[in-house]
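Researcher: Next entry in the queue.
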Amino acid sequence: MPTAVKISDELVVKAKVQSKVFKRSVAGQIEYWAKIGQIIEENPELPFPVIQHILIGKEEIKSGLGIPYVFGE
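Model: Structure for this entry, 73 residues:
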């Protein structure tokens, strides 16, 4: 369920720019930033590019473009 949240005008302006570059809605861009921030806080030892590759890999699997790695095989 959508929830209204107050954020700074500065953040909205930055999100508008980034959203155009990455073809996302402004809300989608802010949600993306929040998701990345959450992942980084939960995994501070992982560099950002590794996190990006993990997220890309998960989406590739969902799209049928890869095979999930099974540990121990």
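Model: The two ends are 41 Å apart (CA to CA).
Researcher: Noted, moving on.
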